[in-house]
């Protein structure tokens, strides 16, 4: 068996089919994947050894993001969306961004929730801190926990309401997206406002979004709205990379009793019906909320926890789907007759 014949655990295709770069020298194997996977070093080493008949392997894992549909030096734009509010979308967005960073990618985070920006607080950015202005028209993103971040919350105080009509909000989103000096990014995670309104349409029509992740809970009404969100992205030709189900289960910290407070299996059912993967199921846990509210989200506050592992696995799977998507894109060649 060859290294190129190894089947990727997320995509079900061989590394050769996916275009992974492979170099071998004795037991040393260097593999460059199209998604960041630093957290899988030990797991992939063991699996590759088994694939090669138990041969001893020293795996050197690298990452190179495909070019993607982005703009400037931003390779991929990923929208994190939800059909309704209150499902933990912003918490999911910031933890996915931090998970990609932990896996070895260069990541930015744009808070596109113009009316209710929350990423400034979740990233621990001090109130009143403003982005620097370059050449009188460009914003320097604020760096927090390894991310390059931009949010309307950096422009106003926490108590300032954004009393804007749809076109004004859409214009503000375009401005902070296109006039921010993101520089070289593998992924720009966009925390969308809930629903399917003006901001969503502006982003999908004006910005080269590579894919979307839908956040929901197992609750029937949330799942119904999640389906609407998926259908909206389908109408504007943005592929849905997967679903993340929040508040899937509650485990009592005192007695260990497990309860499905909002229903069970809803995310799996919707994912199966619509043909998209379920990227992860997050528990209803107080520490996730407390860590985000304190300005140090779970992936940074408790990187070795089970919850952080779920976020990192979801981020890898999401990025792997983008890699597969790029490989499947048609290539046009110009030839002389």
What this model shows, in words?
With 337 residues, this protein is of the alpha/beta class. The chain has two domains: 61 residues, no CATH class; 255 residues, Rossmann fold (3-Layer(aba) Sandwich). Helices cover 34% and strands 20% of the residues. The strands form four sheets. Strands 8-9-5-10-4-11-12-15 form an eight-stranded mixed sheet, with helices on both faces. Strands 1-2-3 form a three-stranded mixed sheet, covered by helices on one side. α3 packs across α11 and α5 crosses α6. It is globular, with a radius of gyration of 20 Å. The termini are far apart. The relative contact order is 0.16. The C terminus is likely disordered.
% residues in beta strands: 15-25%
Q: Main beta sheet: strand number and arrangement?
A: 8 strands, mixed
Report strand order across the widest sheet.
8-9-5-10-4-11-12-15
Shape: globular
The CATH superfamily of the largest domain is identified as P-loop containing nucleotide triphosphate hydrolases
- Give the CA-CA distance, first to last residue: 41 Å
Helix content: 25-40%
Total individual domains: 2
What's the count of strands?
A: 15
* CATH hierarchy class name of the largest domain: Alpha Beta
SSE ordering? HEEHEEHEHEEEEHEHEHEEEHEHHH
What does the average pLDDT come to? 87
Number of H- or I-type helical stretches: 11
Q: What integer value in Å does the Rg equal?
A: 20 Å
State the secondary-structure class: alpha/beta
Low-confidence stretches: 329-337
Q: Output the CATH topology of the largest domain.
A: Rossmann fold
